[in-house]
Amino acid sequence: MATSSMLGVLLLLFFTQLGSSLFTKETNVAAGSRIEMEANGRNYSVFRAAVGIAEADQECLNQGKHLVDFNEEGEYLAIQAALFEAGLERSWYWTAARKDAKKQVWYWETTGETITDYFWLPGEPSNDTSNDYCMRFDVSVGGWLDDPCDTNFLVGYICE
Ligand SMILES: [Ca+2]
After folding, report:
1. The domain that contains 107 carries what CATH number?
2. What is the Å distance from ligand 1's center to 84 Cα?
3. pTM
4. Does residue 142 lie in a domain region?
5. 30 pLDDT above the threshold of 50
6. Closest Cα partner for 91 from 129, 40, 35, 133?
7. Residues 154, 24: contact at Cβ < 8 Å?
8. Is residue 6 part of a domain?
9. Helix H segments across 32-113?
10. What is the predicted pLDDT for the residue at 134?
């Protein structure tokens, strides 16, 4: 009896650990926090919350902002540098990039412009599911991943 309950506890610990390593990322941004940041002369608000992109989008709108779009390579690199400088690099962030399902092209939802500078991580966009239509920015490794838009494990988002 003792052995089987111990085994149960061990299995529970194993799967809890497995789950947390699959669905969360070590972070240096506290959940629920908001940090103001400047990059390239523009202001950005960095949030951390377990929300899908629709909620992140709405939260930016509530503040008269929009989800971050990297309108040019320089803006992307400046934001990445600022996140490192602010100690916010160990996290994932939603961006305003979307995939047009019909055309299979990526564009900025904010401007409608097709994205021309790409910083996908190796193997990305992975198209793991048929609805990987949103983009996450993984700062510490300096690249992008595609994900279902309703993914809501603990990530962050950046408003500008
Ligand atoms: Ca921008």
Report:
1. 3.10.100.10
2. 18
3. 0.78
4. yes
5. yes
6. 35
7. yes
8. no
9. 53-62, 73-85
10. 94
